[in-house]
Structures are given as structure tokens and as C-alpha cells.
Amino acid sequence: MSFPITRLRRLRKTAAIRNMVRETEVNRDDLIMPYFVVPGENISNPIKSMPGNFQLSVDLLVKEVKDLVERTGVDKILLFGIPAEKDETGAVACQHDAIVPQAIRAIKAELPEVVIVADVCNCEYTKHGHCGTIVDGDVDNDSTLKTLAAQSVTLAKSGADIIAPSDMMDGRVAAIRTALDDNGFQNTPIMAYSAKYASGFYGPFRDAADSAPQFGDRNTYQMDPANGDEALREVETDLEEGADMVMVKPALSYMDIISRVKMTYNVPVVAYNVSGEFSMVKAAAANGWIDEQRLIKEILTSLKRAGADVIITYHAKEFVLSELEKGNRV
User: Fold this and answer.
1) Which end of the chain has the smaller Cβ count within 10 Å, N or C?
2) Where do runs of H (alpha helix) occur along the chain?
3) Helix (H, G, I), strand (E, B) or coil at 191
4) What's the predicted TM-score (pTM) here?
């Protein structure tokens, strides 16, 4: 039927009716809050390009995660580490006393119910800022797999609930899965950064994690933003190698990829609402150009509507607090 019999505005008449027929809702269980941890005590370094985010020492990180859980009910976090010293291969991240394993043990001692996703990569831990071992001026794929596998086992032994490789080396999911299984962690899931693009949206993160490449770029291992079919090949390969969840990163400019992955594979899909996407919202809000909380909700809802089951976002805490203050379900 067409107008006037069909009037789609009837279902938009009141807030109660709109709520009744709403197709997509974001709730706290969908969200993962990222944090950056550094050595030392009582350290809280503001990240200038990411307002409201900090590099935190372990003691303050534990307090912050406790506040997150108590005030918002968000009980899933993603950890990145900035070490005291770096090396050429990232082996420093494989040590028992590395900064992220320290943080995991401290959080689990206070908050055992919190789900900790541990990022696995080398860019924060190498002097050159690339995601693996350099051979002949480029990241060597196969030697890097050994470091990634060792780092994953260390993180699992420290209590990480989910291992999340973000390096984009070929074969890394299989290498990590084998290493975890061989060390008794058959039940530890892998959240693979399967379609991770070589994106300009990562700039603020590289400030936060001190991980900018010292030469060249990451185009030889991260994906070309122009490619969509290739993303499906990456996802399929990771699933075949044992990934339990797959990720698309960044999120906003890649919602078509999120949708294609979800429709093609029907597996848990994670969207990473990355630092540059976060900082653009903050910059526009600081200039009074947007309604910040309205836009945050619209962004997160759009990502879930596109097919994301889980959203990693620096907005997680403020989004839930804002919704609670408004008396909304979340």
C-alpha cells in the first residue's frame, strides 16, 4: 500500500512508540574500554590528542577499572602497554614482568570478574615502532610469528581472558593458537584484528602508545583502504586458523566491511572505533559544533546496526554514564 494508507510516521509519533519499534540498541555489554598502562606508581599522563584518556601506572589503572565497573557496569577492557625500555624485536613484551602482564595480574587480584582483552603486537615494544622484526628494511613475517606466540602465552599465563593479535602478519592466528594450546590454554579465545587497514585514523593512538614508525609506513602488512574483497579473504583465513572473533579496524569509514563480514560469516564481529574517530568528535565538541553525546550514541548505534556485535571505543565510559544520567536503558 502507498500513501495515504501507508504512513510510516505513525510509528514515530511518540517516544514510547519509537522505543517500542526500535531495531538497534547499544548496551553496556556490547562495549570494551581501552586503556594504556605505563611503568611506575601514581602516574597519570594526559594524552593530549585524546582528551579524557591517560597513560596510567598499574596502581591508578586498577582504581580506574574499578570505577568503570562500579559506575557503568562495563566489565570488559582492552590493554595496551608502554614499556620502560624497547628492543629490536618486541621480546620485552614476552617477559613475565612486562608491563601488561603486571597490569593483568593486578586487575585480576582486585576485580577477577573483569574480562581483559590483551592486545598482541610489537609496535609499542620495538625501537623502530614497527609491528615485528625488521629484515632488509621490512617487517619479516615468519620470525615475527615467534615473538607474537611467545607474547600471547605470557599474557595468557598472567590471566588475560582474550588474546587479540593486531599485527597483521600472515599465519599469526595459527601460530598463536598452537602456542596457547601447547601451553594448556585451549579455552582462551582469540579476537583477531582480521581486517586492519593502513589508516590515517590511528594518529592519536600512536601518541598514546608511543608507537609511531621511525621509518617508512605499515602499508606492506596493514590493508589498503581501497580493498573490500581482500578483507573477506583475511577474515576467512583467520577463521580457518582458529580465530573465535574477528575485527574490522577502523570502524566508521569501514561499516560496509563490517556488514559484509557479518553477512558472509555470521561470527562474532568486533568494530574498533579508533582514536582518530574519537578525537574528531572531541575536537568538534570542543568548538561547539556538535551535540557530543547525541553524536556518540549515533555513531555507536550505527556500528551495531552495520553488524558489529562488540564495539571497542574510548567513548564507552562516558556513553554509559550519559545514558544513565538521562534515565535510559543501557
Assistant:
1) N
2) 15-21, 58-72, 99-110, 141-158, 172-182, 203-208, 229-241, 255-265, 275-286, 292-306, 316-325
3) strand
4) 0.96
Closest alpha carbon to 53 in 317, 277, 271: 317
- pLDDT tens digit string along 243-292? 999 999 999 999 999 999 999 999 999 999 999 999 999 999 999 999 99
Determine the Cα–Cα distance for residues 276 and 282; give it in Å rounded to an integer. 10
Question: What's the rounded Cα separation, in Å, for the pair 11 and 241?
Answer: 46
Query: What amino acid is encoded at 284 in this protein?
Result: A
Angstrom distance (rounded) from CA 194 to CA 270: 10
Give bridge partners of residue 272 from the DSSP assignment. Answer: 312
Residue with cell 544520567: 325
CA distances, 67 to each of 73, 92, 110, 177 (Å): 9, 30, 12, 33
Total count of residues recorded for the chain: 330
DSSP helix/strand/coil, 223:
strand
Confidence band, pLDDT 50/70/90 cuts, at residue 316 = very high
The stretch 41-68 carries a mean pLDDT of: 97
Query: How many whole angstroms separate alpha carbon 17 and alpha carbon 41?
Result: 51
Contacts of residue 93, defined as CB under 8 A and 6 or more positions apart, other chains included, come to: 81, 83, 100, 122, 124, 125, 147, 151, 154
Contact in structure between 155 and 163 (CB atoms under 8 Å): yes
pLDDT-derived band at 212, boundaries 50, 70, 90:
confident
pLDDT (0 to 100) of residue 142: 95
- Averaged pLDDT of the chain: 96
Would you name the residues annotated as active-site residues? 196, 249
CB distance 166 to 120 below 8 Å: yes
